[in-house]
Amino acid sequence: MIRRCALGLRLIALSLGASLLLTMPTAVGAQTVDDSDAPCTVDAGEPERTLSGVVADAQGARIAGATVNATCGSFTRVVETASDGRFALRLPPGRYDVQVERSGFDIFRQQVSVAADQDTELSVPLTVAHITDTVTVSAPSGIVSRSGTGTKTDTPLKETPQSISVITREQIEAQNTQTMEEVVRYTAGVRAEMYGPDNRGDWFTMRGGSEGSTLLDGLKLPLSGWYGNVRNEPYAFERVEVLRGPSSVLYGQNGPGGVVNLVSKLPQAQAQREIRVQAGNHAHKLIGLDFTGPLNNDGSLLYRFVALGKDSGTQVDHADEERQLVAPALTWRPSAATSSLTAYGQYQRDESDNTVGFFPWEGTILSAPNGRIPDDTFIGEPAWDTYGGERTRFGYQLSHQLNDTWNVRHNLRHDNVDGHLRGMYADFYEGLLDDGRSVNRIWYASRTETRITNVDVLAERRLTLGPTEHTLLVGVDGLWSRDVNLDVGGDATPLDVYTPVYGTFPLPELEFGPENPTDTRQIGVTVQDQMKLDERWVFVAGLRHDAADVDVEDSPESGADDNAWTHRLGAVYLADGGWAPYVSYSTSFEVFTGADYYGVPSKPKRGAQWEGGVKWSPTDERVAVTVAAYTLNEKNRPTTDPDNPLNQVQRGEVTVNGAELEATARLRAWDLVANYTYTDATVTESSDPDDPYLNKRLHSIPEHSASLWAVHRFGIGPVRGLSAGMGLRYVGEIWDGTDVLSAPSTTLVDALFAFDHGPWRYAVNASNLFDKSYIATCIDRGDCWYGNRRKVAVTAAYRY
């Protein structure tokens, strides 16, 4: 209790400290400009100088993501402003026409002289554009070139010495992805949908069997309960960023595979409103609302309101799904200060039936007397089965520019999740019964409650020391959560899986045991330096210390109390032509709760990775390619004690060697996303030389996988605004974990046809277009999982 109160005081102290920092005064810099209309010039033979500055609105709030374009005839240099509104361009001496654009603001134009003997600074004030009744929203001209997920600072992707992917809102919409598993299935290094339509969670692994942590705006999300989870809704997010490889130096404890960061839809300065309706097979129905814009004339108050309602069936009989989501947000940018405060909330309610099967090998991957078990078989009892929960969320994000070099950010979020489950699964250990038609069933039920609070404070400083430019980051973050997980189960009556008859099982009374809540506390401190030398070399060094404490009420042996250091070192060389070779070394840790048979506390699992590769993105930023190779080790995995079959010892090790290729392009009439993944994931150490998993491939991880998504925009005669897309997804042969049984490779096809006409967009999407029935995975314990069948959806969206 004392430790819990102490952590609560620390969280409050972090919040108060950040609030105090946000009241400090700011400073401004100088500028050197040329207001004349003389012809532009470029002294190409002279050494380049730096044109830098700040882009801000009329109230002084700095503007991220503005495009700064310096041109003279055919010569052009383009850059986007960072999260603190700053920009820097290397230019030969001369006189340039500078243009600055940002959605929702009037275009800024000015002629600027860059001297040969000194750098030039420019302050850019942007004025909020006049708000009209109709807003035309066009797609961005290039691909995403910056992200904060890889460094916790606004950094160009090719200056991040680690493999990272950004899945944009445009891609999510074009593919009509309805779950987070579907969102990441065109991403290198990610194995998604391995359990097919299982709706109890978003199942994906990264870089060979490591379940990646999911973040929301850089703070860890709760994975609630024993399948009392409320899944994340893709419509609520602006984009999804995938950072591959160990990331504990930034985000604390997580597996070595990486993290998936969900970036929320937040208020925007430009008014945009969307209403969409959708219908599809399996009686799918959906309505969505997304409104944003300013609330007053000077743009100091912005709002966003996202809402969604869904009612749908699934490919499994009797398993329907419902969802309601409401997510309001408000941003305040106070007058005469470079600060912003965004407060947000969310309510989501999910209610469905279970789509799990746990069908045995016989009748799925292996032959059976009556053929394959139908993949639409519902294994539970329709009158009793249920799964779902409610999540309420509130939080805020603060940012303040103290002066030209210091920026402070502070985030806090609290989640309440209440989940429930009643269902059944096939007793796959026994397989089909003697009649060749039936399986025994096991019933189970759970009730979960999760309360989690995340908070962080980040201080960022940019400075120049001789030939080096530094971005220094110091951060402190804390997490507190309380989980209550109750479950109960038992044997149920058999079911004929070919012609099921329900109602034969007297439904049980649920009698849960004592709550025994689990309290988790974590405090982490991060220090990082991003150093750029002579505009060519980028070095990233990070160090973090975490203290994690897990307590289980009335069960002290089930807890954990761990401290860990993690680090990352990386280097990038910015070569001519947009090439950027890089190398990095990073580590991770993950708390493993409990104790062994003799009461010895468990040690945290540790991960370490070497990664090298090259990134390529030409100056017009319409194409980006990343090639990466890595070797990753995860240690302290539990294995069987050879001296005591009732005990486990942490002597297991998994080694993953892999290579990834990912390319994205946004050309004049084409959008392309392509990737290839090679993964060799093997158990390389065990305490038991007879361990059946030793020197065997991890289950469900294919050695080869690849995908290609392409969209072509075109017109036919006077009809413009047409687009057609197609995707191919290949998943190679996968094994059961002991290299005894494998599921064959499969190739699936997705398709899109859309028509944009004024404020209207009409689209037809199909995933698994040819309705292929396939096995997604089989596991050595005896069960197999069918893959997702065809989904078709017709969407009409009105934007105004």
Topology record:
Layout: H1 2-21, E1 41-42, E2 49-57, E3 67-72, E4 75-80, E5 86-91, E6 94-101, E7 108-114, E8 120-126, E9 146-147, E10 155-156, E11 164-168, H2 169-175, H3 180-183, E12 190-192, E13 204-206, E14 213-216, E15 219-220, E16 237-244, H4 248-251, E17 258-264, E18 272-280, E19 284-294, E20 301-312, E21 321-332, E22 339-352, E23 359-360, E24 386-401, E25 406-426, E26 438-465, E27 468-496, E28 518-533, E29 537-552, E30 560-573, E31 579-590, E32 605-616, E33 623-641, E34 644-666, E35 670-685, E36 704-716, E37 719-731, E38 734-735, E39 742-743, E40 746-757, E41 760-767, E42 775-778, E43 783-786, E44 791-799
What does this structure look like?
- The protein has 800 residues and is mainly β.
- It folds into 2 domains: 35-126, Immunoglobulins (Immunoglobulin-like, Sandwich), CATH 2.60.40.10; 263-384 and 394-554 and 565-799, TonB-dependent receptor, beta-barrel domain (Maltoporin, Chain A).
- Helix content is 4%, strand content 55%.
- The protein is globular and about 90 Å long.
- It starts with a helix and ends with a strand.
